[in-house]
Amino acid sequence: MAASPITDLPHTSRNTPGTADERVERLNASSTRRYLDPDVAVPGAPRPLSEGPVVPPEMLSIAGLGIDLTDTQLAVLAREELASITEMGLRFEAVLMAGFCLQLSIHRDLTDSRAVYALHEVGEETRHSRLFSRMLSELKPTAVNPLDSGLLRRLQRWGESEIIKRPALLDVLVLAGEEIPDLFQRKAAEHPDTDPFVKAVSKYHRQEEARHLAFARITVGEHWASASHFERWLVRHIAPLVVTDMFRMTVHPGVYATVGLPTWKTWRQANAAPRRLAMRYEACRGVLRALVDAGVLRAGRVPRGWQKLCGVDRHGRPTAPGLDELAAA
């Protein structure tokens, strides 16, 4: 049987009843009812993390590469990889909040339901970030990111300033920045060997991120309608390159040096590994589905960059297995 096109796959926004305004109002009501303080919902004190691997070996970036590590090395690498993912999550959420706050500062009607939900989301992201910071302090990473230099930080600040002032582009990256960790956290929460505290953090974060994804799916089409030709070109052709780097840098090269592995060589091998690619495909196909739903991209005319990012053809049909298909093969 031929693979289904992207338009035949499950679509959250299509299956959600009501107008866009009604869906945003429901998100506001849900956020009001479900206030979760991480210090209460995920206490974890005084020492929540176990001494062994905090995530199972098959969830590490080197899974499937045939690299032989001792149990001690696996425990160290698991902590360093999770710390790298957590730190990137913290930094991404800071960019997301900056973008929302910039939009709020020029929003004409601050009582509008979208403005109200943006305030909810900023508040929720600060709570997530506090929890991530707490977990990062428990992980005590020692890896040095070789890309953390003054020049690259300046380039990063410039790039982020360009992104946050373009709402449609920001929405696309928000979708990617939520879908990628959501998949990792779902797999971590489901695995019996994941550390209990890490499971609790994953469950807490995914509960609220579901609403954030729903909001981005609503607004991306609205922002697309008023986007400039240049911003549309960025979404079609530059955004998939940015998302590719976002995914590759969730685990930065420096983590491998902590267990004596070649830094850049191992990083390149890890990002080319079948399981790692399958994880990227599966996460990013969720982004593509949302963009097709919103009319940002069209099945049959999916740009090459998005095809490569998601492992699909121009119709959105998978050309490579996602994580679940790879596991079932």
Helix content: 55-70%
Q: What is the CATH class name?
A: Mainly Alpha
SSE-based structural type: mainly alpha
From N to C, what is the helix and strand string? HHHHHHHHHHHH
Which homologous superfamily in CATH is the superfamily? Ribonucleotide Reductase, subunit A
**How confident overall, as mean pLDDT?**
90
**What can be said about the biggest beta sheet?**
none
Percent of residues in beta strands? under 5%
The fold-level CATH name is Ribonucleotide Reductase, subunit A
Shape: globular
Would you report the number of β strands? 0
CA radius of gyration: 20 Å
- Poorly predicted runs of 5 or more residues: 1-5, 7-15
The helix tally amounts to 12
Q: Distance between termini?
A: 16 Å
What's the structural domain tally?
1
**Proper CATH architecture:** Orthogonal Bundle
